[in-house]
Amino acid sequence: QKITDFGNSISDVAEKSAFNALVTPLLETTLPYTRSSGDAIGSERALQSLLTTLRNWIDVERWFCDGKSYADAVDNLRKSNMDNYEHVLQVCRTHAGLKSSSGIVTSIIDVITGGNGNRSILAGAHSVGDAVPSLSEIGSMGGSQYAGVALRARKFLLQESLPSIEERKARISEATSFLSSSGDVNDFVEEGVPLTDVFYPLLSEFSDNSKKLALTELYLRKLYRSQVLTDFERNSDDMSLKFTFASKTSERIFSASTPVTSMTDLSRAISRSGSLQRLDDLADSDTPPSKTAVCKMVQSFKDIESATFFDSVLQSFPQYVGTVPRCASGPTNSLYIVMLEENQSQESLDSISKNVVGILQSFRQQLDEADIRRVSFLISNRNGEVEEYPLPSILTFREKLGYEEDSLFRNIDPAHAYLLDLSRLSKNFNMNLLDSKQNQSLNLHLYKATPRAEALVVDKKANQSPRIYVRGLSFIVEFSSTSFEKLLVDALNALDIAVHEYGLTVDNHLFLNLVSDHERIILNPVVVEQSVVAILKRHGDRITALGLSEVETKLTCSLNNDTPPIALRMVASNPTGYVHVMNTYVEAADPSSTAPIFKLIGGTKASLSSSGDSSWEGMKITSPYPLTRPFDAQRKSALRSSDSLYCYDLPALFEAAVEKQWSDAAVEGGIEGGIRAASRPFMVMYTSELVVERKNGESGPWTMDDYLHGDLTLVQTQRRAGANNVGMVAWLMTLKTVEYPNGRQVVLISNDITHKAGSFGTREDVVFKLASEFARANRFPRLYVAANSGARI
């Protein structure tokens, strides 16, 4: 700095230029040291050296990662360096030491990220952020040889998706001060700045009770962002907070008998107000429009043991003081107790829960009089380790359980619990929480799900091994492909860490609930499905490697400005092991039950191409997740019987083959490749099933007598997979190929190897004959996929 100041003080231009020319090499040499802050002199120099090592390692290993064979990697390397075989030899020699170099790179990552637990030698370096691109590239490397180092890089990137602790604390402190002076903090709530992990550290920093209450109100406003909040009251003397909350406009559902064979049908059904009903209308109509929540801050558990404590707190509930009658349909109010005492260990939570149950049950009568539905405790987990910011523990005790703890929801914000669909897990699985993560856009919870013994009695052939269920919750203002992909990658990174730690790589499941604050997102389900499918294909290899059997996405949106919001459920799976397929459902009212059911939307990509299995059609939205997915038994039977696929999975393979043909044509480059890429149709295949029916329309299985009397005909229809009652299935497919983008039609016929052991009888003969005659009459090519066990005798 003194050299620079002296140079700036020289007035003579010629002398100044000569001086700068003389000292510039010296300044450039010292730059890595002068860019180091604090007492870590030289940390910037060390960082640049380590980054150079990382980049050199990436330059070598990117030729060999992602499952490439050594021969293919070397061949590609030679083609790219035809004039420099010495470089090829050097890269191959360096790669030969991959095991040792991976350990060195892992150590470098620990030094850069501070993952070794010690003070980093890079503390104070100015350009630490420059490591992120290199770490991203390492984290994306596939292949078993790179699993350890890639996992370490992804762990750091997952942590880095958060703003820095100090930045968040400063922003939250600013919002807290604004709120304590009666300011509006809606903009802060919508920002999505994570607050939970810094809640207790900030509480300990605030000495003013009014700021502590304002911080708590900020926490609760974020917690209840999907509700309508009113009437906030803060009492600094009593350290309590009271507010009322009510559900926003509920999504609508329609009758299960309403046809939804296309997006036009869906739009028409939603636009008719008479065909819709509010989802909450299915519940008891006595539920009050608003409910009361009270939050009380106490120093320790000893403070809640006296009768005067509960009598004082419960005075804030209108039912307790008699100004409002109790709800006839059941308790509705909530009580939060924030424990200011720190140094609670995770191991003591079970004993804390047991003690709290005894306290609550001794005051059960008073809690019932106040119409308390749940009591939740927020407990610090800091243990005095101020350099770390663990999430606090949350214990929730529900009235319906006799104020026992609802252990399934431990450490989950109670206002978010119902959004995670955890009740669908608990019937067939014993659940253990593995981890909870939170960043600016996603709350994530990972569970180890072990099949219950009683569920295995019902499904004797089910996989008995544990699997991982990932439940993600994100509050969004608008849906975009970029935002969804970021959520998916964050979830996959978290699952990757859990899979590596616990070794559970079969039948895992991912659920993402995208909650709109305003429930006025205008979307076309066909476009959403297309975007989600494209993103899942992009990450398909990784999804398969992590053992994900299903990726489930829930999104509440409107089809246009004049329609109420509806809940869409998109379920992606990879039943063949080759291609991901998607089915999109809406929630529909079941006349025989108060629980809505899933109804498949026709006219979407999967339904038009018959590439999905429609296995959720007609299921209640509260149905427990099965141990074995629908049609898995048929798929295993087909594989076991003839080493083939289940027949209803064949259309998905044809669609994938045509899509690959278009992709290969587009990457050829040049004018022709560009033209083909631009002319690729959105739908590359349309499929309808060719079904044999009676000409008079009578329902029920047809017989050979019907055929002999000429009473049968072949009709085109769209129906769910597995609806056949004969062991021969046929489709009419329109394939929009590169050679003929307008589409050529093909008749596909296949045995159902899972129907009567795949045997071939007279009814199968009829389907085969009529479908073949249909193909010949229309001059369509006929393809037959044979997978049978011979004639049925």
List low-confidence stretches. 279-287
- The percentage helix is 25-40%
If you compute it from the alpha carbons, what radius of gyration comes out, rounded to the nearest whole angstrom? 32 Å
Structural class, from helix and strand content?
alpha+beta
User: Overall 3D geometry?
Assistant: globular
Which oligomerization state do the chains in this entry correspond to? single chain
Described by strand count, sense and barrel closure, the largest sheet is: 10 strands, mixed
> What is the percentage of strand-forming residues?
15-25%
Q: Helix count?
A: 29
Query: Strand tally, please?
Result: 22
- The averaged pLDDT comes out at 80
Keywords summarizing the entry:
single chain; alpha+beta; 29 helices; 20% strand
Structural description of this entry:
- With 793 residues, the protein is of the alpha+beta class.
- Strands 3, 4, 10, 11, 12, 13, 14, 15, 16 and 17 form a ten-stranded mixed sheet that branches. The chain has a seven-stranded mixed sheet with strand order 1-2-5-6-7-8-9, sandwiched between helices.
- Helix 3 packs parallel to helix 7 (131-139), helix 8 (147-160) crosses helix 21 (481-502) and helix 9 crosses helix 12 (209-223).
- The chain is globular, with a radius of gyration of 32 Å.
- The model is unreliable at 279-287 (pLDDT under 50).
